[in-house]
Every structure is written in C-alpha cells, then in structure tokens.
Write a structure and sequence with these properties.
ATPase-coupled intramembrane lipid transporter activity, membrane, 9-stranded antiparallel sheet, alpha+beta, 39 helices, ATP-binding, single chain, 35 strands, about 1200 residues, Phospholipid-transporting ATPase, 9-stranded mixed sheet
C-alpha cells in the first residue's frame, strides 16, 4: 500500500501500555492459535471466503427473555413451576371429567385470569427490553463498503472484520481494534460509564504502523489479519497480534475499544471489528445477578406445602367416611340413602365397588377443597411488591438533591427483607466517607506541614475531653489571618503560612519540598483540560486522590497544564528568581499502579537531560524500597505517617532516584520485552521488571488527604444501633485509619474494650524475611488462633462486667481466620462483639466475610458499598445496597437497591423496611385466613351431607372468591397500611426488632390466623345451619333450600373476611374504604346480575337475591349475627393484648392516640421499657458518660 507518512510524535515510550517496536518474532506468539486464542479476523475482508468459514456471531443483540414464538410456552412453564399453579392446572384439567364437583369453565377462568396477569406483567417487562434492543440494533455507524467509501449501516448488520468510522460522542457498536484517530498521534479518549460506571476518560492509542490511516481513502487497499483470544468476559485484558505488511505487531487492551463505551473529546476514530453481538465483552459480562428470595417468601412455600398436606388429609378423611357411608347404603336389599338409588347407580356411589368409589371421591374432594389454597396469592404479592418499590423510588426523603439521585429499588423481590436485617456489612471509603479527597497535610524532609483539623481529629479531641481546635490555629500556636483567607478550592484544604504563597522557598529543606511538589505534578495519569475562554485548567483524573495531588501541586506553585504523548508541562515557581517558569519533562515510561504493586512510578527526562524515577505508593511497600541510610528523616516521616493515619487520613510515600543512562537502557530493553509478551502472565512479567528499577529510592516525604465523613453518618449509625442492628466495617485502609474513622462515626467509643487480631509482631516479621512460606503460614495461623481464643476469653470477661467489646482484624489475619477449620471460632468471637472492623481486606475477603456471616448466623445480612471492589460483597449478601458515589456505578449496577448517601439507609430500613415487612407478612397471613374460612364452610357442609362431594356454593361463587370479592382490599393493605407513621418509626427505632425477630410472621402467628379462619368458618356454617335449617325462611313459610342456604352462607363469609380486614387496617385511606366496602358491594351486584341471566347458566343463583334473600328479614338478621359472632374473638383478643400485653408497635400507637408523641419524657420512658442496651452510636456515648459519672460519685 502506498501512503504518504505524516510527521509523527513517537509515542512508544509514553505509557506502559504502548507497543514499542512494530515487529515481534513469530515464535513469540506461542499462544496465538492455541486453545482460547483461535480467533482470526480478516480486516476489510468480512465477506471473503476465509472469513465466512469461521461463521462468527452477527452483531444483533437480544436481551429479551422471550421471542414471539417462545413467549407463551416459556412463560407458561415459568408460571407452572410454582406448585400452587401446577395444582390448579391439574384441578382444571380434572374439571373436564365427570369427577368435577363444579363446571370446567368456573375452574379454568380464575386460573386463566391469574396466569394471564402474571404473563402480562412478564410480557410488559420483556417488551420494554425488546424496545431497548430494537433501538440499539438499529443505531447506525459508518462502515467501509469498498473503494474508500464509508456508508451508514445499522449496528445489527456489522460483521467481524468490518472497518468502521466512529465519530465524537457516538457509542462503539462492537469490540473494535483502534487503527487511527483524528489526532496525529492516533490517540482517543473513551468514556466507559456503561461498562464499569467510571466517569473519568480512558486514553486509548493505536499501533504506530496503522496510525497513518487518517483518511477514508486510505482504507481502499488496507488488508490485515488479526489473531487474538476467543470471546471472554474479562474487560481489562486482551491478547492478540496484527499481521500487517508482513510484520507482526502485538495488541494490548489499550488498542481495544469496547462496545457500549463512548468516544469523547475526539472527532473520529477508525477501527476493525473483532468481536460482535454476544461475543463482545460487555455481553459476555451480561449474566443474570444471583437469584435472591426473601425469607418470608421461602417460608410461604412451606406454608403452602402445609396447606397441601391439610388438603390431602381432609380429602382422605372425607373419602374414608364416604366409603363407609356408601358401603352401608345397601344392606339386605334395604337402601339407607334411597335418593342415591344405590341399587342402580354409577361407580361413584356403588356400594359394591366401595374402594373405587372412595378413590374417585378422593380426587373429587381434592378439587372441591382446592379453595384452601389462595390462587391469587403469588400474583397479588408480585403486584404489591412492585407498587411498594415505586413508593421507595418516589420517596422525597430518599432523594439526594445535590447529586439529583433518588433511591432506586432495582428489584422488588426483597422489600420485606429490608425489615429483617440483623447485620450490616459496610465499606468505608465512599460509603461512610465522601470519597471526595482533600489535600490537607504533608510531610517533607521530616517536617510536618498543614494546620487543618480533620473530622477524626475533632472526634478524637471530643473523646479525650480536649477543646476542639480551630482550623486556623494549630498546636504550635501559629495562626492565619481570616481576613486574607483564600476562597475554598475543591480538593484542597491545606493551610500553612510556611508553605502557602511561595513561602516554602524559605524553609530549611526547600530543595526537598521543590522535588516533592514536582513529583506531585508529574507522577500521575491525569488529563488536563483548558477552558478556551477563561484559560483555567481542570483535570480529568482516574481517582479522587490523583486529582487532589495535582490540584495541591497547582495551588502550591507547580501547575500541571499540558500533556502530550511524550511530555508533561508544569508552570513552576523558580526559587532563585521567585518567578513562574515553564518546564517540560519527557515521559519515558509509566509503571502503573495496581492493587498488588500498591505504587506508581514514572521515568522522566528533565530539560537538562537528567533521568529521574519518580515514585509514590503505600508505606507498606515504599519504605522497604528506600536507599539504606539515604536520608536522616525516615523515622520522623514514619511518625508523621502514623499521626496522619490516627487522624483518619489516607497517606502515600513520595520518593525518587536518579538513573544513569546504561541502567535505564538495560531496564527499558527488559521492560519492552515484557510488554510485548503475548502470554497471559504479561502483567506479572512487567511487575517483575519494574521491581528491578524501583529500589534504592531517596525519601522525599508523605502526603495526607482526607476523605470526609458523609453528612449524617454518625446519627444514622446511632439510629441503626438503637434498632439492634449490628454493623461491620470492611475496608482496605490501615488499621489505625479504620479505628479512628470508627470513633468519628460513633461505631467505636471511648471505654469500649478492643480485641485486636493482627500479624504485626516482631517474630512474624522476622519469619517473613526468611521467605519460607510454609513455616510463615503455619506460625501465622497458630498466632491468629491464639488471638481468637484470647479474644473469646476477653469477650466473656467483658460480658460478665456488661462491657461492650469491639473486634478489629487485619487482612493478613483474615486469610487464616476464614479457613474452614477456624472460621467458626472467628464467627463466634465476631458475633459476640458489638462492632467489627476488618482492615486491609481485599474484595474477595469482603465477600467471604459476608458469606460467613450470612450462612453462620442464618440471619439477614445487608452489604453496602460504592465501588467495583464491593460487588462480590453486595452479591453475596441477602440484600446488596449500592451507593451511587464517586467510584462509578459498578456497585449500583450489581445491587438490589441503590441510594445516594449512607444516611438514607436509616429511612430505607427503619421506615420502608418495617412497613414492607409488616405489610407482606400480615398480607400473607390474611390470605390464608380468608381462604381457610371459605374452605372450612365447604368441608363442614360436606361432613353434614355424608361427604357426597356436592359443593355448598354455586360454581362461580367459588371461582371468584379469591379473584374478585376478597383480593383487592388485601392488595391495598399491602401497599398503603402503616401501623406507625414514618416519624414515629424513626423516633422509636427499636420497633425494627419486630422484623429481625420475625414476630409478625412466626409459626405461632401464622397458625393463630389459620385458627381464626377455622373458627370463622365453623361459626358461619353452624349459625347459618341452625338459623335456616328447619325453620321457615320467609313469610310464605318456605324453608331454605341449598341455593338460599349457600348464598346466605357465602354472603356471611364475604362480610366476615372484609370486615376482618377493616378491623386489621391501622391506617385508613379513601382507597382502602372504597376497596373494602366496594368488594362487598361488588358481591351483591354480581349476585344481582348473575341471577338475572338464563337459569341454565346461573343454576342455583337464578334470581336468588331478588326473590329470596332481599325480601327475607331472616337473611339480614342471620348475616348481622354471624358477622358479629365471628369477629368478637378477634376484637376481644386485640383489646386484651393492646391493654395488658402490648407489643412495641402497640405502645407507640397508644402514644400517638393519647397525643403524647411530642412528650420527650414519656417517649423516653417507653423507649427504656423496650430498648436493648445500646453499645454503639451517639446515645451509647451519652449513656457511658452517665455511668462513668455515677461511678465516680
């Protein structure tokens, strides 16, 4: 191919990901073509014979669960997987046989209605997904169609090997290899928010050999082959090679542009499609989240099985009695039940075939008693939960206006679980804190700088009884004039007159401070953006820490203002002249930060030709890499770092060294070879080479940035602690930092006993230097076991003295504490402590601790976090809550519920959690009550008719009972009822323990509601039977037949269950009044309309209301008497309980009814009667202070 080459910036030495040389030997690609690396892409030849052989997936993406062809069968399968629905299906099928006690239509219609509602709900959700798919698949992108011509093509029509042109602010339609861009050096900026939630821009760069393809016409004759890894879900790795112009060029993740990421700050890019459709990495990651079911839902399944057992028992007992009666029907020619003609009857009543007749009766009874199972229970609960989620989403008190973020219930399956949380496992950074870093202090040349007082320092001062220092006065007595205070700068809260305004040049070690600030301005991956109108520089950083460092350097005289692909430029304060000068530093290599290295380094060349290695990282790795006796202020810096950690600050160590040219050349050769490796352990090889250069560093100092506590965190933790919820903090911070944050947010308090488990003892450190891993592991495990045992003894002693105990454990100890043979001991210790803090814990350890607590305690766990490192923890917990904070949206996308601030967890649990738990548990109990009431009347009627399998009611009465006459009020109850207002829920947090202890859905409560149903059914039948059985029903002297008896009894059932709901509701709204009394009115309207149609259809209901029931005073008297009699026990029980044995919510209701909700003394007395001893939170600190004062007296 012939191209005119443009003058280029050589970028091969810019970032660690840059491909250095265009050629690599063929035998370096040993994995390409092997298992997992078999993909071959023919660029610009997607329609060729070779390309068609591979038959790769097209670019059509489908996220729907169904297709038009599979919707009905798959949806029906989903519905009938539920045992109750499958049972009703079998009953419906049997209704078409002579065994059925009712017509087939009346049996099928309710089932069809319930299944249809669920299927419609599924269909609407899937239709929405389909609309999204259509919109995405029909998006357009420019594709090369030959002869250098690019035309708009729908995404769905893309094929592997196509050359595409993506323009600014467009999404990438597939996974493509970047070939060139509108920038001369072939870079582009990519926003990956849709993939990982990160809002910062990522820098990508094409191979140098393809960067010349800058015009559409350049692709007329472009041909290349790409061999790479097979489709996989790893977003951050890519191994491949491009064969172009008979040379092989290694490909890395930094040439890969992922589908659904967006092109930003770049006019256009050209790329070759390598993965399409469901082969793309984003779609490979699109797995369903773990299936979570609430404990109430699982228990409901057990209740259903219990009712099935009762149903089978009732049918079996009835069949036995039926068999006995049938056997005695014909003895010696005498017919006992002559009206059945036992001498000439069918098999169903044949005295000569009693076993077969009993079996058939058993099947009939299974259908007849099916109304014991509430057919509409599942669909009603689904609808109610969806509506509850909408209330959570639209709660104005859960809306965070500063970020314009409401709460979002991403799943409605776990609403009631929110009211049963026993343990909260929380991340720290970005969850308890803001993850909005502010540069507040630093140490340089052994001198500490910075006067600002942090939140943790304030808390420490208050804890120790010292006066809280003013931010402008430090312990040395230095002060600043508030009149000349500069306006606040986001990310910068540093105050020290020795450094500000260029005064650092007067410090004794100004040369060290200069290098310190230069390092802050150079060693980073920040991208500057200059406002063309104002000239102000803003920064696009990968983390809040990075941004804070660059801003601090700018504010202290070293402004980073420009980055090219080979240089960074600073405006520096020059000490000799006292003026700002512009200096550029040539970037030779960047050794990137990762979680294992815990440091970042850059190798730069100054304008004077010096080669410098600038490094910053965690103290745990940096101090070990310092030059021995390189400075005389190492110990002083260590002290400052510990002081900063005690103040709750995040610290980094800054160091540097000068390199000679020979040393750098040798390193660069090894580094280039490691980067060009195509093996899966390329990152390990790079880290090993980096180790060889990051040594003998000269210490400059340490930075300290503050991650402030979020507003309302201490108060929220206090309320949650009063509610009896245990709170664990799982963080990657140092132990000292985590402990002090614990004090600041009231998770710990002064006087609380602390059990500390770590491996920082001198003998362990000595062993670690030997390098014998087996010996280290054995000794470390023994030490952890010993500390756990000692901790349990200390805990027992503290409990005997009624003292609170906290557990603090570090990440190294957690490795051994979570092993199979020790984790039960660790859990015993942990659950006995009121607070647990796990420090230096990895994402995997967070998930393992969450699993241990969930499985070990058997109680509901809630995990809350805001970052990608919290995803495992959120998915492992019973409930995952994502904070939509500064670390992106990965935690939110993996969560069940998202909120914007930790403090909103208080309302989510104590208000919505309590309401949803009470509503759902009470709703289920009531469902079973109302169905048992009806089923008992049917069963007792059967017993009175010698189990002849004749229903007491008209077919349609039975069919519409759960669908039309009783379900709407209970659904409204599940959405709207409030036993206690939101204000009182927050005022009396101990109310939450009703859910944790499951007092509203215990077996005792469930069985009591079932007993209420049995009692109500018996009362309805016997009172109706005694009133109507043998006496005249109307003025004409006629007795009540089965039609009148059945309609009267059914009316009583409808009135009883709906009036029971009216008594049960604690918070009446107009909707509930309409639905309760409207359900009764609908019954009468139905009976009127149904009774008016042809008697062949209405059968026993024909004109029964107009001609029999309404004119008869007995009907109205019986109904009134039965309703009162059936409800008196519930009214009596409720009155006695409310007066003599009130539950906690009853006490609060009394307070509200008596108008004493604002009487602080009375409310406090009620709280003290029921609240457990609180050992965590602000109130516990007050209580502890009172106890200490009383002991001193």
């Amino acid at each position: 191919m012939g191209h005119g080459r443009r003058r280029k910036l050589h970028l091969s030495k810019i970032y660690s990901f840059r491909c250095v040389k265009p050629s690599v030997k063929e035998d370096d690609h040993s994995q390409i073509g092997g298992p997992g690396f078999s993909r071959v892409v023919y660029c610009n030849e997607s329609g060729s014979m070779e390309a068609s052989i591979h038959n790769y997936a097209d670019n059509y993406v489908k996220t729907t669960k169904y297709t038009p062809a599979t919707f009905i069968p798959k949806s029906l399968f989903e519905q009938f997987r539920r045992v109750a629905n499958f049972y009703f299906l079998i009953s419906g099928i049997l209704a078409f046989t002579p065994l059925a006690p009712y017509t087939s239509t009346s049996a099928i219609v309710p089932l069809v209605f319930v299944i249809s509602v669920s299927m419609v709900k599924e269909g609407i959700e899937d239709w929405r997904r389909m609309q999204q798919d259509i919109e995405v698949n029909n998006r357009k992108v420019k594709v090369h169609h030959g002869n250098g011509i690019f035309q708009q093509t729908q995404w769905r029509n893309l094929r592997v090997g196509d050359i595409v042109k993506v323009e600014k602010d467009e999404f990438f339609p597939a996974d493509i290899i970047l070939l060139s861009s509108s920038y001369e050096d072939a870079i582009c900026y990519v926003e990956t928010m849709n993939l990982d939630g990160e809002t910062n821009l990522k820098l990508k760069q094409a191979l140098e050999v393809t960067s010349v393809l800058s015009e559409e016409s350049n692709f007329r004759d472009f041909r290349a082959n790409i061999r790479c890894e097979d489709p996989n879900a790893n977003l951050y790795s890519f191994v491949g090679t491009m064969e172009f112009e008979e040379q092989h060029h290694p490909l890395s993740p930094h040439q890969l542009l992922l589908r659904d990421s967006k092109l930003r700050n770049t006019d256009h890019v050209y790329g070759a499609v390598v993965f399409t459709g469901h082969d793309t990495k984003v779609m490979q990651n699109a797995t369903d989240p773990p299936s979570k079911r609430s404990r109430i839902e699982r228990k409901m399944d057990h209740i259903i099985f219990f009712l099935f057992s009762m149903l089978f028992l009732m049918a079996f007992v009835g069949s036995i009695f039926f068999g006995i009666a049938t056997r005695d029907d014909l003895r010696k020619g005498l017919m006992k039940r002559w009206y059945l003609r036992p001498d000439n009857t069918t098999v169903y009543f044949d005295p000569k075939r009693v076993p077969l007749a009993s079996f058939f009766h058993f099947l009939t009874a299974l259908m007849l008693y099916s109304y014991l199972i509430p057919i509409s229970l599942y669909v009603s609960i689904e609808i109610v939960k969806v509506l509850q989620s909408l209330f959570i989403n639209h709660d104005i008190h859960m809306y965070y206006d500063k970020a314009d973020k409401p709460a979002r219930a991403r799943t409605s399956n776990l609403n009631e679980e929110l009211g049963q949380v026993d343990t909260i496992l929380s991340d720290k950074t970005g969850t308890l804190t803001c993850n909005s870093m502010e540069f507040v202090k630093f140490s340089a040349a052994g001198t500490a700088y910075g006067r600002s007082v942090t939140d943790v320092e304030r808390a420490m001062a208050e804890r120790k009884g010292y006066p809280v220092a003013d931010e402008l006065i430090n312990h040395h007595g230095h002060s600043e004039d508030p009149a000349v205070a500069i306006p606040p700068v986001k990310g910068f809260n540093f105050k020290d007159e020795r450094i500000m305004n260029g005064n650092w040049i007067n410090e004794p070690h100004s040369n060290v401070i200069q290098k310190f600030l230069q390092l802050l301005g150079i060693c980073h991956t920040v991208i500057p953006e200059v406002d063309e109108e104002t000239g102000k520089v803003s920064y696009e950083a990968e983390s809040p820490d990075e941004a804070a460092f660059v801003i601090a350097a700018r504010e202290l005289g070293f402004e980073f203002y420009q980055r090219t692909q080979t240089t960074v430029s600073l405006r520096e304060l020059d000490p000799p002249s006292g003026k700002k000068v512009e200096r550029s530093y040539k970037i030779l290599n960047v050794l990137e930060f990762n979680s294992s290295r815990k440091r970042m380094s850059v190798i730069v060349q100054t304008e004077g030709g010096k080669l410098l290695l600038l490094s910053k990282g965690a103290d745990s790795v940096m101090f070990a890499r310092l030059l021995k006796d390189g400075t005389d202020f190492e110990e002083k810096t260590r002290e400052h770092v510990n002081d900063y950690a005690n103040a709750g600050l995040r610290t980094l160590i800054l160091a540097y060294r000068e390199l000679n040219e020979e040393e750098y050349i040798e390193f660069n050769q090894k580094f280039s070879k490691a980067r060009n490796s195509l093996s899966t352990d390329r990152e390990t090889l790079i880290d090993q080479v980096a180790e060889t250069i990051e040594k003998d560093l000269i210490l400059l100092g340490a930075t300290a940035v503050e991650d402030k506590l979020q507003s309302g965190v201490p108060q929220c933790i206090d309320k949650l602690a009063q509610a009896g919820i245990k709170i664990w903090v799982l963080t990657g911070d140092k132990m000292e930092t985590a402990i002090n944050i614990g004090f600041a947010c009231s998770l710990l308090r002064q006087g609380m006993k602390q059990v500390t488990i770590n491996l920082d003892s001198p003998d362990i450190k000595t062993l670690e230097k030997t390098g014998d891993k087996d010996v280290i592991a054995k000794v470390s495990k023994d030490r952890v076991l010993q500390q756990i045992t000692q901790g349990k003894d200390q805990l027992a002693a503290s409990n005997a003295r009624s003292e609170a105990t906290a557990l603090i454990i570090d990440g190294k100890s957690l490795v051994y504490a979570l092993e199979d043979d020790t984790k039960s001991l660790f859990l015993e210790l942990a659950i006995g402590c009121v607070s647990v803090i796990c420090c230096r814990s990895s994402p995997k350890q967070k998930a393992l601790v969450t699993r241990l607590v969930k499985n070990g305690t058997g109680k509901t766990t809630l995990a809350i976090g805001d970052g990608a490192n919290d995803v495992g923890m959120l998915q492992e917990a019973d409930i995952g809550v994502g904070i939509s904070g500064a670390e992106g949206m990965q935690a939110v996308m993996s969560s069940d519920i998202s909120i914007a601030q930790f403090r909103l967890l208080e309302r989510l649990l104590l208000v919505h959690g309590h309401w949803c738990y009470r509503r759902i548990s009470s709703m289920i109990c009531y469902f079973f009550y109302k169905n048992i009431t009806l089923a008992v009347t049917v069963f007792v009627y059967e017993a009175y008719t010698s189990f002849s399998a004749e229903p007491a009611y008209n077919d349609w009465f039975l069919s519409l009972y759960s669908v039309l006459f009783t379900s709407l009020p209970v659904a409204a109850f599940g959405v709207l009822d409030q036993d206690v207002s939101a204000r009182l829920c927050l005022k009396f947090p101990m109310l939450y323990q009703e859910g944790v202890r499951n007092v509203l859905f215990s077996w005792l409560r469930i069985l009591s509601w079932m007993f209420n149903g049995v009692y109500s059914g018996i009362i309805v039948f016997f009172f109706c039977n005694r009133a109507l059985g043998e006496s005249a029903f109307n003025s004409a002297g006629k007795t009540a037949g089965r039609d009148i008896f059945g309609a009267t009894m059914y009316t009583c059932v409808v009135w009883v269950v709906n009036c029971q709901m009216a008594l049960f509701v604690k918070y009446f709204t107009g909707i509930q009044h309409i639905l309760i009394w409207g359900s009764i009115a609908i019954w009468y309207l139905f009976l009127l309309a149904y009774g008016a149609i042809n008697p062949n259809l209405s059968t026993t209901a024909y004109k029964v209301l107009v001609e029999a029931l309404v004119p008869a005073p007995m009907y109205w008297l019986v109904m009134l008497f039965v309703v009162i009699s059936a409800l008196i026990p519930y009214i009596t029980y409720s009155a006695i309980q409310m007066r003599f044995f009130p539950m906690y919510h009853n006490m609060i209701q009394w307070i509200w009814l008596e108008g004493q909700a604002d009487d602080l003394e009375y409310c406090d007395m009620v709280r003290q009667r029921s609240v457990q001893l609180t050992t965590v939170g602000l109130n516990s600190q007050v209580a502890a202070g009172r106890n200490l004062f009383s002991r001193k007296r």
